[in-house]
Amino acid sequence: MNIQSDVSLQLLHTLRLKSQARALCTVSGTAELRTALAWARAEGLPPAVLGEGSNVVLPEYWETLVILQRIPGIEVLSQDGKSVRLRVGAGENWHAFVAWALGQGYFGLENLALIPGTVGAAPIQNIGAYGVEVASFVESVHGLVTVDAAEVTLSTADCQFGYRNSVFKGALRDEVIITAVDLRLSKQPSSQTGYPSLQAHLESAGIDSATPEQVFNAVMDIRRSKLPDPAVQPNAGSFFKNPVLDTAGANALRERFPDIPCYEQSDGSVKVAAAWLIDQCGWRGHRVRGVGVHSEHALVLVNDGGDSAQELLRLADAIAADVAAKFDIDLAIEPRVYL
Ligand code: FAD
Ligand code: NAP
After folding, report:
1. Would you call 52 a catalytic residue per the annotation?
2. What pTM, to 2 d.p., does this model score?
3. Is the CB of 129 under 6 A from ligand 2?
4. Domains in the chain: ranges and CATH
5. DSSP characters for 282-293?
6. If you take atom 4 of ligand 2, which residue's CA is the nearest one?
């Protein structure tokens, strides 16, 4: 196994911040992952996993063994007339897998098209977009326990999926390295088109009853028109989660701010659009010391050439402080911050 020392991570994560790892290796199988974990243990270095680095804020110097997760493979486990069960290697690219599944006639993931990153990272924050979350398709998650490389399989219930959340961000944070994900997809085409911007896009294209392919294409069109491409403007997607309030809290806010975009959830809670809160505080388009807030999308913080994680987090703190002062809401950062 090739383990490199003092490697720049700038091109290995989408925020493109200045960052260097003490050591780095790429794993394309479970045996290699075991070797990497044993090496890290022997060196007394904590291991840390990176997929495609689209949801992380990295430190300038990272005293760790970075393990680039690249385990490939898509295997059909079983199928019948209605559905198919797949095992997908954690290192597969998420969007390529979504496109492949659609091409095979395996449906359900179309709304999650173009989300950057790997399949193995998808359960970590229960990726979601346009009214769909990956949790609805995950049957189990396979991995190795970081401390002793023991194999582990977690059921959907074990994963404790929530809104952009899972056990991998809580009790099992850094405890398990995901090697494969089992998903069940439908062989019967059906489309989830209720999400407002998706519905509007399909309507404007004159599409009445959208096929999964049309949903897939519409989601890609909307995303390309709205979201900055990290290759052009480095970013980590939404920097803050949408706050979720109880009904009383949401009603109090609605009284003070009648225009506030609120979305009732099935459990009675109310989700508030964080982008609107940030916009109302005047942050959209703001640039400071090489970092900034995207001018089209106030939830996306961008690296504008400054390359400093500290500056980015200072900006995030200032935004969160303004939102707290104006709305009495605490914003939570979505990407994993390693500083
Ligand atoms: P990384 O950023 O490499 O890692 C993220 C975290 O997961 C790290 O803590 C890492 O250690 C851990 N991790 C990664 N792989 C493993 C593994 N195999 N085992 C254990 N831990 C692991 N997210 C959404 O939910 N919806 C969206 O619509 C969306 N849109 C985005 C748009 C843009 C432009 C960008 C830049 C990001 C967006 N994101 C979105 C966030 C991001 O795409 C997802 O969180 C994605 O799942 C991250 O995958 P990754 O491989 O890049 O993970
Ligand atoms: P949008 O459609 O402009 O909506 C703004 C926010 O309001 C979204 O974050 C969304 O929450 C919420 N919302 C809108 N309609 C809703 C509904 N009917 N029910 C519940 N919540 C609703 O959002 P956008 O920024 O263009 O993003 C589109 C989708 O892609 C969203 O699902 C978003 O989560 C996802 N996305 C995520 C990231 C990321 O990094 N996490 C980055 C880009 C886009 P939700 O976020 O819960 O959907």
Report:
1. no
2. 0.97
3. yes
4. 4-69 (3.30.43.10), 74-186 (3.30.465.10), 235-337 (3.90.78.10)
5. T-TT-EETTEEE
6. 273
- Is pLDDT of 338 > 90? yes
Q: How far apart are the C-alpha atoms of 96 and 216, rounded to whole Å?
A: 12
Closest C-alpha to ligand 2, atom 12: 273
pLDDT recorded at residue 250 = 95
Closest ligand 2 atom to 299 CA: 25
Q: Residue 149: which residues within 8 A CB-CB, separation 6 or more? A: 33, 34, 37, 38
What is the structure's pLDDT at 193? 97
| Annotated catalytic residue 164 | yes
Could you say which of 52, 133, 311, 334 is catalytic? 334
CB of 224 within 6 A of ligand 2: the answer is no
Could you identify the residue written with the tokens 């091409």? Answer: 103
End-to-end C-alpha distance for the chain, whole angstroms? 28
The C-alpha atoms of residue 271 and residue 247 are separated, in whole angstroms, by 10
Report pLDDT digits (tens) over 203-237. Answer: 999 999 999 999 999 999 999 999 999 999 999 99
Closest residue CA from atom 1 of ligand 1: 53
92 in catalytic set: no
In which residue are the tokens 């496109």 written?
99
Give the DSSP letter of residue 295: S
Place 307 in a pLDDT band, splitting at 50, 70 and 90. confident
Split at pLDDT 50, 70, 90, the class of 58 is very high
Residues 206, 208, 212: CA angle, nearest 5 degrees? 105
**172: three-class secondary structure by DSSP:** coil
From 124, 147, 173, the mutation candidate for ligand 1 (largest count of ligand atoms within 8 A of CB) is: 124
Residue 1 clears pLDDT 90, i.e. is over it? no
Encoded tokens for 50: 């990176």
Question: Is the Cβ atom of 196 under 6 angstroms away from ligand 2?
Answer: yes
Q: Which of 19, 140, 238, 284 is catalytic?
A: 238
